[in-house]
Amino acid sequence: MKNNYKALKLPEYLETYSKIFSSSKDDKISLFELGIWEGGSLLIWQDYFKNGTIVGLDLNIPDLSTYNTDRIEMFLGSQTDIKVLTVIGEKYKQFDIIIDDCSHISKNTKISFDCLLPYVKSGGVYIIEDWQIDFHDNIRGDGGMTKFIKSLIEEQMWTNILSIYIIPPMVVITKR
Fold first, then answer.
1. Domain range holding 70?
2. Which of 3, 28, 43, 100 fits a 20 to 30 Å CA distance from 61?
Protein backbone atom coordinates (compact mmCIF):
# COMPACT_ATOMS: atom_id res chain seq x y z
CA MET A 1 0.00 0.00 0.00
CA LYS A 2 1.17 3.47 -0.83
CA ASN A 3 1.50 5.79 2.17
CA ASN A 4 0.07 9.26 1.52
CA TYR A 5 0.05 10.59 5.09
CA LYS A 6 2.40 13.40 4.04
CA ALA A 7 -0.23 14.75 1.65
CA LEU A 8 -2.54 15.67 4.51
CA LYS A 9 -2.71 19.16 5.90
CA LEU A 10 -0.94 18.57 9.21
CA PRO A 11 -1.02 19.43 12.05
CA GLU A 12 -3.83 22.00 11.82
CA TYR A 13 -6.49 19.63 10.52
CA LEU A 14 -5.63 16.62 12.67
CA GLU A 15 -5.55 18.74 15.83
CA THR A 16 -8.96 20.17 14.99
CA TYR A 17 -10.40 16.77 14.12
CA SER A 18 -8.98 15.28 17.30
CA LYS A 19 -10.87 17.89 19.34
CA ILE A 20 -14.10 17.27 17.45
CA PHE A 21 -13.99 13.46 17.42
CA SER A 22 -12.07 12.47 20.57
CA SER A 23 -15.21 11.31 22.39
CA SER A 24 -16.22 8.99 19.53
CA LYS A 25 -12.89 7.53 18.43
CA ASP A 26 -13.75 4.09 19.86
CA ASP A 27 -17.32 4.08 18.55
CA LYS A 28 -18.53 2.13 15.55
CA ILE A 29 -18.86 5.18 13.31
CA SER A 30 -19.31 5.49 9.56
CA LEU A 31 -17.31 8.18 7.78
CA PHE A 32 -17.56 9.27 4.14
CA GLU A 33 -14.85 11.50 2.69
CA LEU A 34 -15.23 13.20 -0.68
CA GLY A 35 -11.92 14.08 -2.30
CA ILE A 36 -9.50 11.42 -1.08
CA TRP A 37 -6.78 12.07 -3.64
CA GLU A 38 -4.75 8.84 -3.47
CA GLY A 39 -6.40 7.56 -0.30
CA GLY A 40 -3.89 8.31 2.46
CA SER A 41 -6.46 10.03 4.64
CA LEU A 42 -8.57 6.86 4.64
CA LEU A 43 -5.73 5.08 6.44
CA ILE A 44 -5.59 7.81 9.05
CA TRP A 45 -9.35 7.57 9.61
CA GLN A 46 -9.12 3.78 9.82
CA ASP A 47 -6.39 4.08 12.45
CA TYR A 48 -8.20 6.81 14.38
CA PHE A 49 -11.65 5.18 14.38
CA LYS A 50 -10.61 1.63 15.32
CA ASN A 51 -14.19 0.33 14.94
CA GLY A 52 -15.26 2.59 12.09
CA THR A 53 -16.29 2.05 8.51
CA ILE A 54 -14.47 4.42 6.16
CA VAL A 55 -15.75 5.33 2.67
CA GLY A 56 -14.00 7.52 0.12
CA LEU A 57 -14.79 9.09 -3.25
CA ASP A 58 -12.57 10.71 -5.85
CA LEU A 59 -12.37 11.28 -9.60
CA ASN A 60 -8.79 10.08 -9.84
CA ILE A 61 -8.19 6.81 -8.07
CA PRO A 62 -5.44 4.88 -9.85
CA ASP A 63 -6.50 1.53 -8.34
CA LEU A 64 -9.71 1.10 -6.37
CA SER A 65 -8.31 -1.98 -4.64
CA THR A 66 -5.38 -0.05 -3.17
CA TYR A 67 -7.02 0.58 0.19
CA ASN A 68 -10.22 -1.45 -0.01
CA THR A 69 -10.36 -3.61 3.11
CA ASP A 70 -13.10 -4.93 5.36
CA ARG A 71 -13.35 -1.39 6.81
CA ILE A 72 -12.43 0.86 3.86
CA GLU A 73 -14.21 1.19 0.53
CA MET A 74 -13.24 3.59 -2.24
CA PHE A 75 -15.53 4.78 -5.03
CA LEU A 76 -14.62 6.41 -8.32
CA GLY A 77 -16.78 9.41 -9.17
CA SER A 78 -17.51 13.11 -8.95
CA GLN A 79 -18.97 15.00 -6.04
CA THR A 80 -21.53 16.40 -8.49
CA ASP A 81 -22.70 12.99 -9.73
CA ILE A 82 -25.96 12.63 -7.81
CA LYS A 83 -26.39 9.06 -9.07
CA VAL A 84 -23.03 7.94 -7.59
CA LEU A 85 -23.63 9.85 -4.34
CA THR A 86 -27.08 8.30 -4.00
CA VAL A 87 -25.72 4.78 -4.63
CA ILE A 88 -23.17 5.31 -1.83
CA GLY A 89 -25.77 6.86 0.48
CA GLU A 90 -28.22 4.03 -0.11
CA LYS A 91 -25.54 1.40 0.42
CA TYR A 92 -24.45 2.81 3.79
CA LYS A 93 -27.81 4.36 4.78
CA GLN A 94 -26.54 6.84 7.40
CA PHE A 95 -23.13 8.37 8.07
CA ASP A 96 -21.92 9.77 11.37
CA ILE A 97 -19.43 11.98 9.53
CA ILE A 98 -19.19 13.29 5.97
CA ILE A 99 -16.12 15.33 5.02
CA ASP A 100 -16.06 17.33 1.78
CA ASP A 101 -12.43 17.86 0.82
CA CYS A 102 -13.19 17.71 -2.87
CA SER A 103 -13.20 20.51 -5.47
CA HIS A 104 -13.67 23.49 -3.09
CA ILE A 105 -15.93 25.00 -5.73
CA SER A 106 -19.15 26.33 -4.22
CA LYS A 107 -21.60 24.97 -6.82
CA ASN A 108 -20.04 21.49 -6.53
CA THR A 109 -20.03 21.66 -2.73
CA LYS A 110 -23.69 22.67 -2.72
CA ILE A 111 -24.68 19.76 -4.99
CA SER A 112 -22.99 17.15 -2.81
CA PHE A 113 -24.21 18.80 0.41
CA ASP A 114 -27.83 18.89 -0.76
CA CYS A 115 -27.66 15.27 -1.94
CA LEU A 116 -25.80 13.84 1.07
CA LEU A 117 -27.22 15.72 4.09
CA PRO A 118 -30.18 13.29 4.24
CA TYR A 119 -27.63 10.48 4.71
CA VAL A 120 -26.13 12.10 7.83
CA LYS A 121 -27.44 10.65 11.09
CA SER A 122 -29.23 12.92 13.52
CA GLY A 123 -26.43 14.45 15.60
CA GLY A 124 -23.91 13.58 12.89
CA VAL A 125 -21.68 16.12 11.18
CA TYR A 126 -21.08 17.31 7.63
CA ILE A 127 -17.72 19.05 7.33
CA ILE A 128 -16.64 21.30 4.48
CA GLU A 129 -12.88 21.69 4.37
CA ASP A 130 -11.04 24.65 2.86
CA TRP A 131 -14.20 26.77 2.63
CA GLN A 132 -12.08 29.92 3.01
CA ILE A 133 -10.76 29.58 -0.54
CA ASP A 134 -12.45 32.89 -1.37
CA PHE A 135 -9.87 34.63 0.83
CA HIS A 136 -6.66 33.12 -0.56
CA ASP A 137 -4.63 35.72 -2.43
CA ASN A 138 -3.14 33.24 -4.89
CA ILE A 139 -6.47 31.49 -5.64
CA ARG A 140 -9.18 34.07 -4.95
CA GLY A 141 -12.47 32.30 -5.38
CA ASP A 142 -15.51 34.02 -6.78
CA GLY A 143 -17.07 34.51 -3.35
CA GLY A 144 -19.42 31.60 -3.97
CA MET A 145 -18.19 29.43 -1.11
CA THR A 146 -18.64 32.25 1.38
CA LYS A 147 -22.13 32.90 -0.01
CA PHE A 148 -22.99 29.20 0.31
CA ILE A 149 -21.82 29.06 3.95
CA LYS A 150 -23.71 32.30 4.66
CA SER A 151 -26.87 30.80 3.15
CA LEU A 152 -26.54 27.78 5.47
CA ILE A 153 -26.29 30.12 8.46
CA GLU A 154 -29.32 32.15 7.31
CA GLU A 155 -31.41 29.03 6.66
CA GLN A 156 -30.30 27.20 9.81
CA MET A 157 -33.46 27.85 11.80
CA TRP A 158 -35.68 26.60 8.97
CA THR A 159 -33.77 23.43 8.13
CA ASN A 160 -32.61 20.26 9.78
CA ILE A 161 -29.29 21.87 10.74
CA LEU A 162 -28.70 22.01 14.50
CA SER A 163 -25.48 24.03 14.51
CA ILE A 164 -22.76 25.46 12.33
CA TYR A 165 -19.27 25.80 13.73
CA ILE A 166 -16.85 27.82 11.61
CA ILE A 167 -13.11 27.30 11.98
CA PRO A 168 -10.67 28.87 9.50
CA PRO A 169 -9.95 25.60 7.64
CA MET A 170 -13.43 24.06 7.91
CA VAL A 171 -17.13 24.43 8.59
CA VAL A 172 -18.67 21.79 10.88
CA ILE A 173 -22.41 21.40 10.35
CA THR A 174 -24.31 19.27 12.89
CA LYS A 175 -27.56 17.74 11.74
CA ARG A 176 -30.64 18.23 13.93
1. 25-175
2. 28
